[in-house]
Amino acid sequence: MWQDPIVKETRELRKQYAEQFNHDPDAIFEDIRKRQEKSSRKRVAFPARKAKSKQKIA
Fold first, then answer.
1. Which of 18, 21, 25, 55 is the most exposed place for a label (fewest CB within 10 A)?
2. pTM of the predicted model, to two decimals?
3. CB within 8 Å of 53: residues ≥ 6 apart
4. How far apart are CA 17 and CA 13, in angstroms?
5. 32-52 burial, b for 16+ CB within 10 Å, e for fewer?
6. Helix segments in the chain, DSSP class H
7. pLDDT, tens digit, for every residue of 4-23?
């Protein structure tokens, strides 16, 4: 089966990053938040969307 080298590299990098935090999602999330705070890039936040009402089926 053919494997995309870019996908393979991305998955390996993700694995290495997660290993730094023992695959702890809370620690990974905290690291991402710290990186965002240090970044000079503008963050964009969109307002929450209202849930669509469920229509009754006749």
1. 55
2. 0.64
3. none
4. 6
5. eeeeeeeeeeeeeeeeeeeee
6. 5-19, 25-38
7. 999 999 999 999 999 999 99
